[in-house]
Amino acid sequence: MSPLLAQAATEPINRAELLADDPLWLILLKAVVVLLIGPIFTVVLIVGERKIVGRMQNRPGPNRVGPFGMLQSLADAVKLPFKEQVIPDTADRKIYFLAPVIAVVPALIGLAAIPFGGEVTIFGERTVLQLIELPVSVLLVLAGASIGVYGIVLGGWASGSPYPLLGGLRSAAQVISYEIAMGLSIIGVVLYSQSMATSGIVAAQADGGWYFYLLLPSFVIYLVSMVGETNRAPFDLPEAESELVGGFHTEYSSMKFAMFFLAEYSNMVIVSAFATTLFLGGGMFPFFGADAAINQGWWPALWFLAKMCVILFGFIWLRGTLPRFRYDQFMKLGWKVLVPAALVWLLLIATVRALRNAEGVSTGQILIIGGVAIVVVVLLMLLIPEKEIPEDEGVVTTSGGGHPVPPLDLKVPETTPRRKAVEARRRSEEKQQAELSPQAAGAPGESSKEGESHGDL
Amino acid sequence: MRTEAPLVLAQAGADATVSTGEAVAFWVLGPIAVAGALCMIFARNAVHSALWLVMTMLSLGMLYMLQQAPFLGFTQIIVYTGAIMMLFLFVLMMVGRESSDSVLEVLRGQRLMAAVLGIGIAGVLAGALTRALTDVPPAPAMNPWTPEGGGAGGLARVIFQDYLFPFELTSALLITAAVGAMVLAFTDRHSKQGKRSQRDLVEARFRGEYERPSPKPGPGVYATSNSVATPALLPDGSIAPESLSSLIESTPTAQLQAHRKQLESRAAGSDTHALLDPEDGTGDGDAPAGAAATATEDKA
């Protein structure tokens, strides 16, 4: 295991050394570019999302400002800061002002650890397309996400009104539960690539294949939890406008509202970039080796952005397609589906890695052992008795469509108490008649004569 | 590995120096951490206290990163600030924003115990600190890029090999606590005393175990108003008393009672008086209407 680890560790050191060599002006330049990626993508994404969702819903979308309405977000960006700020009377003012800032800053920092590409030369200076390189830069992105949620939760709390508070509460619960699933899916990647540095993970994928098919369950869990983590439809419960007015940002207006918007879209960009790094091979173009001309210089940055845009389109597609989850279903999905699935998958990965690291176990043996294990598990599953549905007594017999219908073997009784009573009364009346006119008395009790006597009366 | 650790420490003790950047960062982050801790204690509002604690934890995490332990630093931020303090905030928000600290002593002898334990911990900390200032050699700077350094590898080796048993004990304690919390909070909805299902509740309502079988009437939403404070009106124009919420300040009960009286007096001539209560429906003349007028003037 140690030679493998050492091999994985030497690659980032080279990158780290290149980065450490950067002069101050280059670091500043990169920092400015990284900070600008979030806002620029926000501006583009808002128009893009409105246009695409409009297209999906058979309507034109924004089409007034600029050619094809492409400058709509710019107009909005100019408009929003000049709108009036409305601050609720009951707001906790300090935290109310602080919350949008807490939401935005981590969202802008998160992109610093993403390796956009390989080695390039900027103004005669050799460097890599990445702002900082840490041995644990995967955790930097996760930490940024976990701090950014404070903005939403505190914004909801500090507004001092019920709907934002509910939105903040939902957000807190949502992030706690979906961060676990997200972290577990990332652990799979870390175990497989034996590196916690983002560039190390990209390098490992260049050697051994991309993880979106090697670690498919991890990828799916990451995709689901990333939507939950960024509060996007169908998991946008903290701002569910049909239930909570606007959720956590109901009481926010003007620039502070714009900052929440910026944070949301920047977070989308970050999780998409992170997914590209972890599962889609970073800036690598598939089918050609890492040494091909198409994977040198500035090209990887282009591939990276293209992959990122595909995932961002997925976000928009989801929003245009799926209705919002109910809150309890959402929590059930997180805790009862994603987390257990991620744990089982993680156990599997760890077992396979341990077997592979152990000497003298071939891939064929692993497959045989795995097959036997699966067969045993399936047989054990067959032994579990099916859950019996308890029969509810006192329920009307139903068949088909759930409507109460009489049973097929229904027996209509020959006589009923009421019919008996009617019969008895009639007899007593006849008896009285017979007593009054004895000459008309026939055979008493004969039912065939009843009709005649009625006719007489 | 444990055997060679003191050797490494001894070697590094001689030439261990603190770089300028680290010193500057320490003198910036240290006071912030201490200030956050103090403000956490003295803040009146529970949510503010939690936020000050978040600040302390963040600066501690950054100090770890500065000392070549980036894994520990980020874990501190993710686990403590990201998850645990978020749970605290969640509970505080559930309890409500008025949850400031009370001076009532709930547990008998709590303050005495707290004082004794607090002084004890302060003593232990002071002792450790004085010892650290005098005779502990500074640890060598490790290379976090190597598995033995401050990264995940070195930490995992220490936890899962050298200190495996204490680690397992701690995890057993945590699992016991988690299971205990679940047992205390668990209600079995299938047992007799368990949570009632929707059907049970409906039957209970119609059996008369509750105030009324239906929900209370909603607020009145009309063409002229869409506020929840607007009371709902009954078919005769009088106010449905159940639609009033005592929680909403803008509909004080007194004002609405006066308004109700006013409507009654207006309706006195018509045949709708049959719908009013027979006891107070007669002969209330001008006085309630006047009261209602003054009430509305006061409001204005």
Draw up the topology in text.
The complex is a heterodimer of chains A (457) and B (300).
Chain A: H1 2-20, H2 24-56, H3 72-79, H4 93-109, E1 119-122, E2 125-128, H5 137-158, H6 162-193, H7 198-208, H8 211-214, H9 216-229, H10 241-244, H11 254-279, H12 299-321, H13 327-357, H14 363-383, H15 417-436, H16 450-456
Antiparallel strand pairs in A: 1-2
Helix pairs in contact in A: 1-7, 2-3, 2-11, 2-12, 4-5, 4-11, 5-6, 5-11, 6-9, 6-13, 9-11, 9-13, 11-12
Chain B: H1 5-15, H2 20-42, H3 46-66, H4 70-95, H5 110-135, H6 152-162, H7 164-185, H8 198-207, H9 253-266, H10 287-299
Helix pairs in contact in B: 2-3, 3-4, 9-10
Total beta strands of chain A: 2
Task: Please identify, by name, the CATH architecture of the largest domain in chain B.
Answer: Up-down Bundle
Low-confidence stretches of chain B: 1-15, 278-300
**N-end to C-end Cα span of chain A:** 112 Å
Task: Tell me the series of helices and strands of chain B, N- to C-terminal.
Answer: HHHHHHHHHH
- Strand order, largest beta sheet of chain A: 1-2
Region (Disordered) (chain A): 394-457
Organism (chain A): Prauserella isguenensis
InterPro entries (chain A): NADH_UbQ_OxRdtase_su1/FPO (IPR001694), NADH_UbQ_OxRdtase_su1_CS (IPR018086)
GO cellular component, one term (chain A): plasma membrane
Provide key terms for this protein:
heterodimer, A: 457 residues, mainly alpha, two-stranded antiparallel sheet, 2 strands, 2% strand, extended, disordered C terminus, B: 300 residues, Four Helix Bundle (Hemerythrin (Met), subunit A), 2 domains, 10 helices, 59% helix, 0% strand, elongated, disordered N terminus, Nuo/plastoQ_OxRdtase_6_NuoJ (chain B)
